[in-house]
Structure formats: C-alpha cells, structure tokens
Design brief:
two-stranded antiparallel ribbon; single chain; two-stranded antiparallel sheet; alpha+beta; 34% helix; 16% strand; globular
Length: 110
C-alpha cells in the first residue's frame, strides 16, 4: 500500500473520531471495523462497501464502483510467515491504535 494512504488510514484509526465495531464494515449504530474506517477515509461510497474476507492466503477487500474496481490487501505475514488479517485482529480485541501501529509497520505488505 502507498505509504501516504496507509498513514492516513492509521491516523484516522488513532484519531478517536471513529467508534470501533466488530464483524461488519459498519454496524447499524454507526460503529466501524478497521476496514470500514478505510472505506470512509478513502472516499468509497457506502453503497459500494462489499468486503471479500477470504483469509486463505491474502485477505483483500474489493469494491466495484461505477468508475471501476478498487481493492487492497488487508493482511500481512507474521514472523512465522503465517498471514494475519486486520479483520481477525479487529474482531479479536485489538484496539484501533494497536491496529494503526501495525498498519504503519507493515504498510508495504498491505
């Protein structure tokens, strides 16, 4: 992932402006998972939020919009070489600031 985009995303997670949700991109109460925050700050229209959470090898989130397609990797390899997904971390108790630190550290893999 481009460093500027990754750091913009991480900064948004650190900002305290977004309430953390679990299991979906956005809950009915307006809480977002870390990927939902990415959708918001990257300007992806809400009607185009369709995530593909398939952690077989590399997790991606993919959007099909009128202007074309957009996708990004949302996983990185841990020190043992196994893929870790941001979705897993978000939904198992990692806080937004913790996820932001990982995005900054692993942005080249995302």
């Amino acid at each position: 992932m481009d460093k500027d985009k990754a750091f913009k995303w991480a900064d948004a997670l650190d900002s305290g402006e977004h309430l953390q949700g679990f299991g979906v991109l956005e809950t009915s109460e307006g809480k977002n998972c870390c990927l939902g925050v990415a959708c918001k700050i990257f300007g992806i229209p809400r009607e185009d939020w369709v995530g593909a959470a398939l952690p077989s090898e590399r997790q991606t989130i993919h959007f099909t919009m009128k202007s074309g397609s957009y996708g990004m990797f949302t996983s990185f390899r841990d020190r043992d070489g196994a893929y870790v997904t941001l979705t897993q971390l978000n939904d198992t108790g990692f806080t937004f600031p913790q996820i932001a630190d990982l995005i900054r550290h692993f942005y080249e893999e995302l």
